[in-house]
Amino acid sequence: MSEALYKNPDIYDIAYTEKVDEIVMEHYKNVFAGKDIETIHDCSFGTGSLSIVLARMGYKLSGSDISESMLEKAGEKIKEEGLTIKLVQSDFRELTANINDTYDCVMSTGNSLAHVNNADVIKTIYEMSKLVNENGYIYIDSRNWDKIRDTKQRFYYYPPFFRDGERINLVQVWDHNIDGTITFNFLYSFEKDNKILRNEEFAETYHPLSIELIVESLNKLGFGNFEIHNFGNAKIHKLENMQWYSIIARKLS
Question: What's this model's pTM, rounded to 2 decimal places?
């Protein structure tokens, strides 16, 4: 039986290379350009792979996550780099019960909102909004679930990457379930000297969310000035061509 990927922070992090860090940094430079943002909270912090880079860029960063093991891994990275990032264990559906501070930008990174059903996504966006300063921002990144559901895509391949002398191959197989959820099967193989040393298999079931749901929820909470950016390639501008996008909106009232 497959394990859950997000209960295995070492495997979860294995695909995050220095090249990925560079791509993520360029993405944030593009998205945050011209915006009055100093303090940022990522409520889907995980191991920090998609947000620690913000602390390196000079932002005052904090984070929360439901997973203790992910936060422990994040803490190791933060200590190793000599950074100061406050971490709190919290379900993102219950942020205001665990966090008293407010921020210029509250983020949910790593396609994390799809881990809960759509009703809980709406609740989470409400909780995020309560932590946003006047004229502040909410930022969300997500797989393009509209595209995935329309195309019924099943296979997703990553270019091979190398770690500690091993070649690592990652393939995802997506099962479209009758109840509308989609199960991602993560298939890893580890090679050395042209021989497969071992395999790892994990599965996660997601609740697809439309960009319309995100926009409507933010509009009802008084957010506007929406911007949609392709995640990882600024040259792609049409949503239908994006595999993964980010959306940022400003609090207007």
Answer: 0.94
